[in-house]
Amino acid sequence: MLTLLPFLAATLLGTDTLLVSPTWLSANLGQPGVVVIHADRDRAAYDAGHIAGSQFLALASIVVERDGISNELPPVATLDSVLESIGVGNETRVIITGDPLAAGRLFFTLDYLGHGADAALLDGGTPAWVAAGFPVAQEALTPGRATFTPDPRPDVLADAAWVQTHLHDSTVALLDARPAADYAGTPGSSTPSGHIPGARNLFWKTTLGGTPPALLDRAALAAMFKAAGYAPGDIVVTYCRTGVQASFLFFVARYLGYETKMYDGSFAEWSQLAGMPIEQGVGE
Predict the structure, then answer these.
(1) In terms of Cα–Cα distance, which of 245, 238, 242 is closest to 268?
(2) How far apart are CA 136 and CA 140, in angstroms?
(3) N or C: the chain end with fewer CB closer than 10 Å?
(4) How far apart are CA 69 and CA 80, in angstroms?
(5) What is the model's pLDDT at position 283?
(6) pLDDT at 196
(7) In sequence order, what DSSP letters do the residues of 145-213 get, joined into one string?
(8) Are strands 208-209 and 214-215 parallel, antiparallel or unpaired?
(9) How sure is the predictor about 284, in pLDDT bands with cuts at 50, 70 and 90?
(10) By the 8 A CB rule, do 282 and 228 touch?
(11) What's the CA gap between 249 and 238, in Å, rounded?
């Protein structure tokens, strides 16, 4: 649930619900209910200069290793505690910046917890903020603790059994967010390599363009998804190696308004399960 002032400001400025511009954030920074989170793997970029008042969130605090697979969702209670500690509450409008992959993973996590409609990525992140002429700070402020009540949405998750059942379902667009070499199983690519049968490759970085990199416009993104096999009414299911690259592609699909799931175990899990088919090459 949004507090009234930030919601009205977003409406008046004509911003998209899940993506906000540096101009929008500048106009709303410091308003009641707006929390800016800088998500990243480490603090280096945050400490070098961050949006004033933003809170740092380490990627490691919202992922765990499970059954030998890294970057899996932690228990809901763990996520609840982490988010409350950085000021995310039930009525908080969360604006996410930082490393694109960590930012995408945080959005996916918030969406899973039922808070995705009240979360948005800062288009272009902090580099776009700086390029627009807005200042950064070095001081890290201690956030006030908030009260957050998760409302988990298991419907945004696809497990291996679900994927296997829908391998030949023409209404499911299974998208692999890894680089083309990993998808194809090119010699020298990351391991494990190859892809789930029927999956199309849509490398997450190709959804960004410009300097600093920002999300491509809706028409260009929709064309990319169509070229990767998405048809109107399909369910988009994203995966990668361990669920981080796929989180960003999950965000893009949600931004476009598609019904979207993510296979969190991704190819690292799929390739370890007995009897699961794997394809090499560029696919269809």
Answers:
(1) 242
(2) 11
(3) C
(4) 22
(5) 57
(6) 97
(7) P--------GGGB--HHHHHHTTT-TTEEEEE-S-HHHHHT-TTS-SS-SB-TT-EE--GGGGEETTTT
(8) antiparallel
(9) low
(10) no
(11) 7
Q: How many CB atoms lie within 10 A of CB 151?
A: 10
pTM exceeds 0.90, yes or no: yes
List, for residues 185-204, the tens digit of each pLDDT value. 887 777 778 999 999 999 99
Measure CA of the first residue to CA of the last residue in the chain; give whole Å.
Answer: 43
Closest CA to 241 of 284, 179, 199, 283: 179
Question: In this structure, what token pair is assigned to residue 60?
Answer: 């490691």
What whole-number distance in Å separates Cα of residue 18 and Cα of residue 121? 6
**Rounded mean pLDDT, 179-184:** 94
What the chain holds in terms of domains, given with CATH numbers, is 4-153 (3.40.250.10), 157-270 (3.40.250.10)
Report the chain's mean pLDDT, rounded to a whole number: 92
Does residue 269 surpass a pLDDT of 90?
A: yes
Contact 10, 16 (CB under 8 A): no
pLDDT over 90 at 5, yes or no = no
d(CA 237, CA 169): 12
